[in-house]
Amino acid sequence: MTETTPPDALICPRCGLAGKPGQKFCNACGTALEKPPAPPAATPKNVPPATPPAPASPGPAGSGRTGLIIGAVVIVALLVIGVFFLLPMISGPGVSGSSSAQSGSATTKASEVVHGTISTGPMTVAAQGTIPAQGGVITVTDPGSAINGLVFTAPDGAYPAGQQVTISSAPITGNTFGSNFNPATPMISISAGSEYAETPVTVKIPVSIPDDQFAMAFYYDEVNQKLEGIPTASQDSTSVTITTRHFSDIVISMISKGTLDVVKKADSGFRPGVDDWEFGNAGSELARNGHCAGQAETMMWYYTEQRQKKNAPPLFGRYDNNGREKTPAFERDNTLGYRFASILHAKTNQDNYWTNIGSMISNVSDINTLREFKYAILLTGEPQYVGIYRPGGGHALVCYEVSDNHLFIADPNYPGKERMITFNETTNAFDPYSSGANVNDINDNGAKKYPTISYVAKSAFFSWPKIASYYEDVESGRIGFHEWWPYSLVFNSVDNKGAKTQVGRIALAGNNAEVYKIDVPDDKVTFSADSGERFRAVTFVIKDSNQKQVTRWPITLKEGSNLFAIETYEEGSWVGFDWVDFVYTPKEPTSAATLQASRSLTTARQYALNDAGRSNPECKDADKAYADANCAPAGTLGMGFWNTLPFCGTPPDTCIDTSLNGGVLEEWTFYTKEETDAYGKSKIVAVRDGWLLHYDKTWGVSSKERYKDGDQVGSCYLATSGTGSSHFECTGDTA
Fold first, then answer.
1. pLDDT, tens only, 661-690
2. What pLDDT digit, counting tens, does each position of 228-268 carry?
């Protein structure tokens, strides 16, 4: 704000405010006033050239008619140029036309923001006071003040620690925002701390509004030379009441309703499919009913702060797959953007005061709401926040263009789609808009009608600085690290007997930090989530790279690469996304010669005990477990019966029932090898290979099974012929 100070006025050296004639101390901070420093010498403008220009040469004979022709051409050219420059003033910052461009048709360069300056006279304090935690009211009661009658109202809990509030005003002496901006109040400065109020605050501003005029409040950002709309709670012929959570310099502007209503189009340049998020609003564990408000505000913030200000790339798809190879069929592998929207919705207390906002701003007539959107885009060149309401809830949208009686909308439930809200001139109201609380609500229950349409502006209820701070986490890849509950994914290979072996782990899952490659020795794999008992009911949505959903468990793999998208849900709410590539390499068959050369072969037996052996502690239940002839330490063998051998070696003769094949009931051939488990611990693994022989007192070997590398491949049993002879009948591989 450029302040015009009388030449003989004293100013405050601390806060820069000018004092009134005869005033010695600053009304705002109490500092002694001083004379302002002398202004620097003015730089001469339009300095004539050192050599005067040569006089124009006289025209040839007959040049009078030629001059008329040239003059006519010049007049036509000036008219064309005039229309070219005046049309944007009538139509707004966007391109003139009767309908919006289709989604995705915008160029990669965003539209320009409307800039301007406002100059004022000295600022004068009109009222001061403290708002306690339980809320309160501060009223300007100075009859000499230009804002006498202004009422600042904070509800209970707006400032939990209390807040000092100072209300000042300064006369406006000029501006460069063009003919559509017509200040109807002084510049009003409200100081209420740098933080946003916990709940919306209202300010009733006195202003005389003729019947043919439309009035609306704006913030003025002196640093960036911009205006920003503020939601209207109510208005009459003598006042406008605004509602917001933060304050700075505020001014009410008026425009003729007739002038505003004939504006064909006000266009911010924002377009769905270019400037919105590419994912739908399905919510998360932080925002279980959806994060529409966070999604709407973050895409508005990115457009104004990154696209318009810094000419950054369009938002749609920029963070798809977190910036790696694009995967448009998988919306939520953009975990950076998805968590950004969820966190902003949750951490800015949207659900806490959403209903309160709706009740505050729904008192404005629909025709004036239409005018709010049009006037705001006309004076700012920026998209605007839309709140829609129905019994049972609300939803957030972005209005990026007003064309005729249509609000062109970007809806978080319909990413990349151009949608409209229509003002019906017959009913003098908006037609209800169809959407839902979130995409799941629409898919499960169908779209619902939202009859109430409200103007929510831009940063009035959302902390713009907080969005900027979270965007830094998006850029660093750490968004959500502090807000999301950490969890791991643990992967297990499953062999044909159902035995599981851990083959991989994502320690910090859900962030889609990379494509995790996991080598798997079997053609089946399972996994689980480990959250330290935080998750109560975890489910997964698993799809292959062709979007085919996996419905059978364990997951069956083909040889080679198997790329899967894994989305994790806790009690039905999204918590994360990961890409995992399971690389299945089948085991190579091992020949007997190789097996003999590379692995330690041994035999184990189960013995038949006599009555004395069963009661003798030295026999150690040798009939209930296999005894390893090599005396491997108990508990070191890793499969089936080999887990815990309670006996080692051959039992004493006094324990054995020698009437049965020397006391042997069963005899195994197996090999052992040393492996390292997933935790780095060394262990001996026993794998059955060869024959398992079952002995009988009468027949000796009564049946047998053949194993290869731990898998049964054949079996034989003893059969008796009609002549009394016996023979083995076998199936499978028994060679």
1. 667 777 777 666 665 555 555 555 666 677
2. 999 999 999 999 999 999 999 999 999 999 999 999 999 99
> Residue 56 — pLDDT band, cuts 50, 70, 90?
very low
Are 383 and 239 found together in one domain? Answer: no
**pLDDT at residue 589, rounded to an integer:** 59
Residue 273 has pLDDT above 90, yes or no: yes
CB within 8 Å of 81: residues ≥ 6 apart: none
DSSP for residue 162: -
- The pLDDT of 325-349, averaged and rounded, is 90
Residue 41 is predicted with a pLDDT of 36
pLDDT at 17 exceeding the cut of 60: no
Return left, alpha or beta for 94; rule: phi > 0 is left, psi -120 to 50 is alpha, else beta.
Answer: beta
Residue 199: its pLDDT value, please?
A: 87
CATH at 253: 2.60.220.30
3-state secondary structure of 538: strand
Domain that residue 495 falls in: 488-584
**For the chain, what's the residue count?**
735
**Residue 209, CA atoms < 13 Å, CB-side half-sphere:** 23
Asked whether residue 699 carries a pLDDT value surpassing 50, the answer given is yes
User: Is the distance from CB of 332 to CB of 338 less than 8 angstroms?
Assistant: yes
Q: For the chain, how long is the longest CA-to-CA vector?
A: 147
- 550 pLDDT above the threshold of 50: yes
In DSSP terms, 701 is beta-bridged to 695
Q: What is the DSSP string of 454-504?
A: EEEESSSSS-HHHHHHHHHHHHHT-TTTTTSPP-EEEEEEE-TT--EEEEE
Residue 576, classed as helix, strand or coil, is strand
Q: Is 287 found in the same domain as 175?
A: no
Of the candidates 403, 337, 402, the one whose C-alpha atom is nearest the C-alpha of residue 372 is 402
Per DSSP, the residues of 374-435 read: HHHHHHH-S-EEEEEEETTEEEEEEEEEEETTEEEEE-TTSTT--EEEEEETTTTEEPPEEE
Q: What is the mean pLDDT of residues 85-90?
A: 40
User: Is 275 found in the same domain as 399?
Assistant: yes
Q: Is residue 46 included in any domain, yes or no?
A: no
The kind and range of the H/E element at 611 are: helix 611-615
Beta bridge partners of 489: 506, 529
CA distances 557 to 316, 514, 523, Å, are 34, 21, 5
609, 623 Cβ separation under 8 angstroms: yes
For the chain, the straight-line distance linking the first and the last C-alpha, in angstroms and rounded, comes to 97
Q: Which of 257, 277, 305 is the last residue of a domain?
A: 257
Query: Across the strands, what pairs with 687?
Result: 671
What is the distance between the alpha carbons of residues 486 and 502, in angstroms, rounded to a whole number?
20
What mean pLDDT, rounded, does the chain reach? 79
Does the structure show a pLDDT above 60 at 303?
A: yes
Residues 559 and 622 in one domain: no
Domain identity same for 626 and 580: no
CA neighbor of 600 nearest in space, from 629, 626, 624, 625: 629
CA pseudo-torsion sign 435, 438, 441, 443: positive
The answer to whether 450 and 389 have CB atoms below 8 angstroms apart is yes
Q: What is the CATH number of the domain that holds 568?
A: 2.60.40
pLDDT tops 50 at residue 282: yes
Dihedral over alpha carbons 317, 320, 325, 330 (to 10 degrees) = -110
| pLDDT confidence of residue 499 | 86
Closest to 510 in 3D by CA, of 570, 574, 576: 576
pLDDT per position as a tens digit, 647-663:
455 667 777 777 766 67
d(Cα 389, Cα 452) in Å, to the nearest integer?
A: 5
How confident is residue 603, by pLDDT bands cut at 50, 70 and 90?
A: low
The answer to whether 147 and 140 are in contact (CB under 8 A) is yes
Joined tokens for residue 318 = 């920029």
